[in-house]
Amino acid sequence: MNIFRLAGDMTHLASVLVLLLKIHTIKSCAGISLKTQELYAIVFVTRYLDIFTSFVSVYNTFMKLIFLGSSFSIVWYMRRHKIVRRSYDKDHDTFRHYFLALPCLILALLIHEKFTLTEVMWTFSLYLEAVAILPQLILLQRTRNIDNLTGQYVFLLGAYRALYILNWIYRYFTEPHYVHWITWISGLVQTLLYADFFYYYFDSWKNSKKLQLPA
């Protein structure tokens, strides 16, 4: 564990808490893509298949349970909660997310480090996480109505991955034979997808104006 990974984990956790705060207290999921949340649920399920068979640390298991539980809670709120689901903008959240999941699965079957179920599913989760934010970004571009909590949620998600890249760089120079190119490339693609959002987020913060993405 190093400072970059810890900061990345805490930033990721903060993004989830911000979203749950918005949904639970305001009883609204306006501006949130259900398609992205469903993709994240798939990411965590396929990544943490070993949660009950491979123990690393209490911290590691705790974080896995948090992300699994929160992802399914968010999906449940958006689909089933009688008040929250009314604010879901299904007319604009029309990205066909299975167009992302299927190619990622095929790619994982073709390009992986070891051909086992857990390894292929772990690789699939990396590929899918890299592009899972796309429905969310497209929804924000279509609606152009980004409230503060939604903007903070997306920013924290992007910051989490950027911090993890710093973690990988740190480990590359401090740990012998630390080479995971699949992880690195997936993380870089994911961070680049946030580049446009980061620009407009900082521009709105610097000029004290409402955050809007170009159509």
TrEMBL record:
Q: Give TM segment ranges.
A: 55-77, 98-115, 121-140, 152-170, 182-202
Q: Where in the cell is it found?
A: Endoplasmic reticulum membrane
Recorded family membership? Belongs to the ERD2 family.
Q: Does the keyword Transport apply?
A: yes
Key words of the record: Endoplasmic reticulum, ER-Golgi transport, Membrane, Protein transport, Receptor, Transmembrane, Transmembrane helix, Transport
GO (cellular component) term, any one: endoplasmic reticulum membrane
Any one GO molecular function term: ER retention sequence binding
This chain's source organism reads: Carya illinoinensis
Write down the membrane topology.
Answer: Multi-pass membrane protein
Which domain of life, per UniProt? Eukaryota
- Name the PROSITE patterns on file: ER_LUMEN_RECEPTOR_1, ER_LUMEN_RECEPTOR_2
A single Gene Ontology biological process assigned to it is: vesicle-mediated transport
* Principal subcellular localization: endoplasmic reticulum
Matching entries from InterPro entries are given as: ER_ret_rcpt
PANTHER family referenced in this protein's UniProt entry, alphabetically: ER LUMEN PROTEIN RETAINING RECEPTOR (PTHR10585)
Q: What is this protein called?
A: ER lumen protein-retaining receptor
